[in-house]
């Protein structure tokens, strides 16, 4: 699968965000976490939040189109949204789909996603849903791999 790679270490994050002030931590500082945060901020600054978000939402739309007619989709299809899609495949429990995808090397979340009472109001979700999230390093190849791995794919 094609994947974008993080920018070279020469990209410098905004220094004000990555300066550690004395007393900023309640315990010992976690230098690896700070370095990781600074690298993430540098990547976001170099790529641009709007570019990253547009790419993630394009993948969300692609998955929604690929699943249309094959799965029940939950969530908005337009308007304000985040790059997350929950779905169920008719005839399969969400956990079964999760295991099928896991066997194909595709990692998703299944179940009630910390909102069990929500699922009392959604028909056909007694076992929860399968939830897919996209990030800046996912690609259309990842979407195609997921849809091919599903039953009937």
- Give the helix proportion (percent range): 25-40%
Number of continuous helical runs: 5
Strand content of the residues, in percent?
A: 5-15%
Count of β-strands:
4
* Radius of gyration, taken over Cα atoms and rounded to an integer in Å: 19 Å
Q: Pick out the low-confidence regions.
A: none
The secondary-structure class comes to: alpha+beta
Mean pLDDT: 84
Largest sheet: 4 strands, antiparallel
Instruction: Name the helix and strand elements from N-terminus to C-terminus, one letter apiece.
Output: HHHEEHEEH
Shape: globular
Protein described:
The protein is α+β, with helices and mostly antiparallel strands. Helices cover 39% and strands 10% of the residues. The chain is built from five helices and four strands. It has helices at residues 15-18, 31-47, 49-67, 94-103, 140-149; strands spanning 72-74, 84-88, 109-111, 129-133. It has a four-stranded antiparallel β-sheet with strand order 1-2-4-3, with helices on one face. It is globular and about 55 Å long. The mean pLDDT is 84.
Topology, please?
Layout: H1 15-18, H2 31-47, H3 49-67, E1 72-74, E2 84-88, H4 94-103, E3 109-111, E4 129-133, H5 140-149
Antiparallel strand pairs: 1-2, 2-4, 3-4
